[in-house]
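Board notes, transcribed. Complex of a protein with magnesium ion.
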Amino acid sequence: MFICVDFDGTIVDHRYPEIGQPVPGAVKWLKLLHRQGARLILFTMRSDGGVAGNALTDALDYLRSEGVALFAVNENPGQQEWTSSPKVYADVYIDDSAFGCPLIRPTGFARPCVDWNEVGPAVEHMCLSRR
Ligand SMILES: [Mg+2]
């Protein structure tokens, strides 16, 4: 199962281009989903260069330091074989900006962020039911 996962507001608090505080449960659930066979695609507006510095590299370094294994970044390798669409193919998209995404407001956070207590188990169920 391919999972596109956003970064700011989903894995860390919105402090772009800085790395915000960890969103509660995000790393734990991403690692668990990966262990269950999910292929994680970081799907983010972050990029390197320009006024934001190395915002994408900083995010990748953060995920590596947390032990989150990514399948790809802002692409699903191989989809060019069957589509020329720029939309990244995935079975599920986890993004704080997605309509209907459960959100929480941790104290001190800049904005609401993904509620992994709800999202994690729901996506895990999707992974397990597709085996
Ligand atoms: Mg976001």
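The longest strand covers residues 2-5. Residues 116-129 form the longest helix (14 residues).
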